[in-house]
Every structure is written in C-alpha cells, then in structure tokens.
C-alpha cells in the first residue's frame, strides 16, 4: 500500500538540487534590484524635473549598491537571481570602469596647470587656497563666488604676487562674482556672449598666451538645479555646448569651474562631448568634489570639472579646503606640439 505525500500549507517549494527555498529572499532581492535599476536608469532621462535631476547624481551609489546586492545574492545562494543582478552589475561596470583607467601622458612636458575653486560666498580659507596654488604651481586659477573681501584675503595670502593678470569682477554678498587669475599674459574676450544669459554668475572668457601658444579659457558657474531653477540650469549647460561648437580651428580650449552637474546628467555629458574631462582621463575613478565642510551628506559627486580640447592631460587631482563645500580641482597639461621649420 502506497501513501501519497501531502504538502503542508506554507511549506517552501523545492529549489535547485531538490532543496527547499523560501520565496521571500528572492522577492526582496528583486525589489532592491528594481529600485536600483530605476535610480540608475535615470541617467538617460534628459529631464528638468528636480527629483530626476537629484537621482541622476546617485550613479556611484547605485554601482556600490549593485555590488553589495550581488554579494548578498551569492551569500544567500539565490542562484537564479544571480543572472539579473549580474547583468545589472555588468551595465554599471561598463559605465563606471572607464574612469578608473588612466589615459594621460605622464612623460609629456608640464606646460600649463589650471585650477578651479568655488569660494562659497567668499568664505573659503584664503591661506589654504594660496597654499594649494603654490603646491601645484598653478598658472591659471578660475575662482567662482568671489566677494571683495575674498579677493582681499587672497591678495593678502600672496596671490597678487603669484599672478600677473586678473580678469573678472567680485560681487559683494553674492555668489555671482567670478575671477580668472593668470601667470601668463591674458586678454579678456568675454563680450556680450549669449552663453552667459542663463546664469546670474559672471563667466569670464580669456585668451592666455602660454609661451607663444594661445589657450582660450572659459570660466564656468552654472546655476544650481534647485527647485524652480532646473530649466535655467539645463539651458546654461546647453549654452556652454553651443559655445563649444563655436570654437573652431586648432586653438586649445578649456572650460573650468563649477558646472553644478555630473556625468550622470545628460546635459553635462552633451556639453563635455569632444572634450577631455581631466579627472576621467587621469583615471581617478570616483572623484568627489561636493559637499564638504560639515554637510550632513558626505561628499559623493563631482560638480567641478576641467574640460579641455587640444591639450594633453598629464595629471589631475582635487583638494578639500576649509570654508567651502566644494573641493578644489586642478590639472596639468602639455601644449600641442608645433612643427618646427628650417629656413
């Protein structure tokens, strides 16, 4: 006489290798995967809806979350869930890994060093800014959110002895003042440029004569994508892309400053097309320039960039200083080689 086995209510169903596997962990893994996928997928939405703009900054956190989820999935031996989780990790890796591999030319000559700093309403520690300038032997400094008091403090720290040229204006009790300092002769070419119509901040443009080679430098300070300002934020980034397209010929070009955008934003990626992002070329990986100085959220995103065309990136880096929520960014470049002619 045979006895038919009856499955008890609530008993887990057999899994691989005949083992019982409760469905709860699979559902939880799937839910976390969907959430991370939605947040990560936001990078392809060219939107001005602020929640989307904010989500687009979370790309590195999504990559870390997916790696953690992959580890948990393997640890729990949810083998069939490894396929979708692994596929998501592969997509994230294809986006993140290129920034960890350097494409610089370390043997190239060090012809030009450019630094950008957001002084945070002029509150940045002027002595530390000056120390960073001297430590990196900076040739061109782009400073945003410069107040008259901040300029006086920088001069007192010795920058008026370091640089021979100053272009731009300070603005009292405001974030709109921008200055470009240079150790080389510099000619302002700003004019009435429509690229500056979408930001209240000054964005000076100068041509720097670097030992006979003209390098065009555009200071950048895009408005932050705060609630109600995201349309102008995207318009300012698109205007910079238009400015980029107007730069014809072989003249080296640099965009330097606070873009208030990361590579997770489609508008920034469009602006950076055809340009070298110094920190990516240097293979520095997850660069974080904001927010610093006692913020509740630890630094997790790069908003400050150095974009160049016609120059060779030799090295790059960033430095956190007191008084500002932005880290300093800097890069060293080699000028394009010029053909010598014999008489």
TrEMBL record:
SUPFAM superfamilies assigned to the protein according to its UniProt record, in alphabetical order: DNase I-like
InterPro entries attached to this UniProt entry: Endo/exonu/phosph_ase_sf, Endo/exonuclease/phosphatase
Gene3D superfamilies hit by this protein: Endonuclease/exonuclease/phosphatase
Transmembrane feature ranges: 27-45, 51-72, 79-101
Keyword Flavoprotein tagged: no
Keyword terms, alphabetized: Endonuclease, Hydrolase, Membrane, Nuclease, Transmembrane, Transmembrane helix
Pfam families: Exo_endo_phos
Superkingdom field: Bacteria
Domain Endonuclease/exonuclease/phosphatase per the UniProt entry, residue ranges: 117-326
A GO molecular-function annotation: endonuclease activity
Protein name according to UniProt: Endonuclease/exonuclease/phosphatase
Species per Swiss-Prot/TrEMBL record: Intrasporangium calvum (strain ATCC 23552 / DSM 43043 / JCM 3097 / NBRC 12989 / NCIMB 10167 / NRRL B-3866 / 7 KIP)
């Amino acid at each position: 006489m045979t006895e038919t086995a009856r499955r008890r209510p609530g008993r887990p169903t057999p899994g691989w290798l005949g083992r019982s596997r409760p469905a709860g962990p699979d559902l939880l893994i799937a839910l976390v995967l969907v959430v991370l996928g939605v947040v990560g997928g936001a990078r392809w939405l060219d939107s001005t809806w602020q929640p989307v703009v904010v989500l687009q900054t979370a790309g590195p956190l999504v990559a870390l979350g997916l790696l953690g989820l992959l580890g948990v999935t393997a640890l729990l031996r949810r083998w069939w869930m490894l396929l979708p989780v692994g596929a998501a990790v592969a997509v994230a890796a294809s986006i993140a890994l290129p920034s960890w591999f350097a494409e610089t030319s370390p043997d190239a000559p060090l012809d030009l060093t450019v630094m950008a700093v957001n002084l945070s309403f002029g509150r940045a520690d002027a002595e530390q800014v000056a120390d960073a300038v001297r430590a990196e032997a900076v040739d061109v400094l782009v400073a945003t959110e410069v107040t008259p008091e901040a300029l006086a403090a920088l001069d007192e720290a010795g920058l008026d002895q370091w640089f021979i040229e100053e272009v731009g204006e300070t603005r009292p009790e405001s974030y709109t003042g921008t200055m470009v300092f240079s150790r080389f002769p510099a000619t302002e070419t700003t004019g009435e440029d429509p690229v500056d119509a979408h930001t209240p901040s000054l964005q000076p443009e100068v041509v720097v004569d670097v030992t006979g080679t003209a390098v065009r430098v555009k200071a950048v300070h895009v408005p932050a994508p705060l609630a109600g300002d995201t349309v102008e934020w995207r318009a300012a980034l698109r205007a910079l892309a238009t400015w980029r397209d107007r730069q014809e010929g072989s003249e080296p070009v640099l965009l330097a400053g606070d873009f208030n955008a990361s590579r997770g934003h489609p508008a920034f990626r469009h602006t950076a097309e055809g340009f070298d992002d110094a920190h990516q070329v240097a293979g520095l990986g997850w660069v974080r320039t904001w927010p610093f100085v006692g913020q509740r959220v630890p630094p997790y995103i790069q908003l400050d960039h150095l974009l160049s065309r016609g120059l060779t990136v030799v090295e790059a880096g960033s430095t956190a200083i007191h008084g500002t929520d932005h880290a300093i960014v800097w890069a060293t470049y080699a000028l394009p080689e010029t053909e010598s002619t014999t008489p």
